[in-house]
Amino acid sequence: MFLQVNHLEKVFQTRFSKEKTTALSDVSFTAEEGEYIAIMGESGSGKTTLLNILATLEKPSNGDVILENKKISAIKEAQLAEFRRDHLGFVFQDFNLLDTLSIRDNIFLPLVLARHPYIEMVERLEALAPKLSISDLLDKQPFELSGGQKQRVAIARALITHPKLILADEPTAALDSKNSDALLELFEHINADGQTVLMVTHSSLAASHAGRVLFIKDGKIFHQLYRGSKTPREFNLDIMSTMTTILGGK
Ligand SMILES: Nc1ncnc2c1ncn2[C@@H]1O[C@H](COP(=O)(O)OP(=O)(O)OP(=O)(O)O)[C@@H](O)[C@H]1O
PROSITE patterns per the record (predicted)? Predict the structure, then answer.
C-alpha cells in the first residue's frame, strides 16, 4: 500500500493551561499511488492537523503514518527537512513564494537546496513550464504576477522535485472563481499524469474534482465518497449532501 494512516490521534495541550483539545481522535485510511483525495469537514474538524501530520510538520500523539513502507511519523527531527524536501510537494493557499527571487529561482529553490546540477534543473523546468502555462513568467518577480499565475508557479515548485505526494492546503482559497476552476483542472491533469495528490478544502466544488473525498467529523473519518464516472458537477451534489448531513447532525 502506498500510504497508510493508522489510528491517528492528536491532542493539543497549551503550555499555560491544562485544557486539552482533541483535534484527531482516531483517523485511519489508506491511499493508492496515483489517487487524488480531497479532505473535507467543518471548521475545526482537524483537517489541517491531519495534513500537518502527513507533512511531518506535526507529530501524532498516537498512531502512525506509513508512506511506501517508511514510518514517516517516526522520522528523527534532524532528518525531517531533508525528507520533506525530497519526497513531498507543498501547495498553500497563500502561494509562499519568495519576493526577492525571480520566478525561475523560486521554482529551482528546492533543487538548489538538494544540490541538483543546474542542467538538470533547467531540463526539469523546460518539461514543466509549458504544462503549467508559465514559460513567459520565468524572468519576472512574484509581485508582477496575478494570484492564478502565482499558484501555478507554486505548483511548479512543488512538482519539480518529482515528489511522491503533493499536499495542498486550500489551494483555491485565495483565487477568484475563474482562476480556481483553471487550477482545479490543472490538478486533475497533474493527477492524470500519475501524481498522487491530497488536498484539504472547504469547497465542495474543489473537492468535486478529486477521485475520492474523505469527510472528517469529531476527529474521525465520518464518511468517504468515490467519484467513479461522475462529472465534477454531479459529484459536487453528492459532496454537498454529505456536508449537509455532517452540519445537520450538530
Ligand atoms: N497548535 C495548536 N494548539 C492547540 N490547539 C490546536 C492547535 N492546532 C489546532 N488546534 C485545535 O485543534 C482542532 C482542529 O484544528 P484544525 O486546524 O486541524 O481544524 P481544521 O479542520 O483545519 O479547521 P479550519 O477548517 O477552520 O481550518 C481545533 O479545535 C483547533 O483549535
Answer: ABC_TRANSPORTER_1, ABC_TRANSPORTER_2
pLDDT tens for each residue of 71-128? 998 899 899 988 998 899 999 888 889 999 999 999 999 999 889 999 999 999 999 9
| Ligand 1 nearest-atom number relative to CA 202 | 25
- CB neighbours of 184 closer than 8 A, spacing ≥ 6? 172, 205, 206, 209, 232
- pTM of the predicted protein model: 0.92
Give the amino acid at 116: H
> What's the 104 CA to ligand 1 centre distance in angstroms?
34
Tally of domains in the chain:
1
In angstroms, rounded to a whole number, what is the distance separating the alpha carbons of residues 89 and 241? 31
CA 65 to CA 69: how far, in whole Å? 9
Residue 102 makes CB contacts below 8 A (sequence gap 6+) with 138, 139, 140, 141
Give ipTM to 2 decimals. 0.95
Q: What CATH number is associated with residue 29?
A: 3.40.50.300
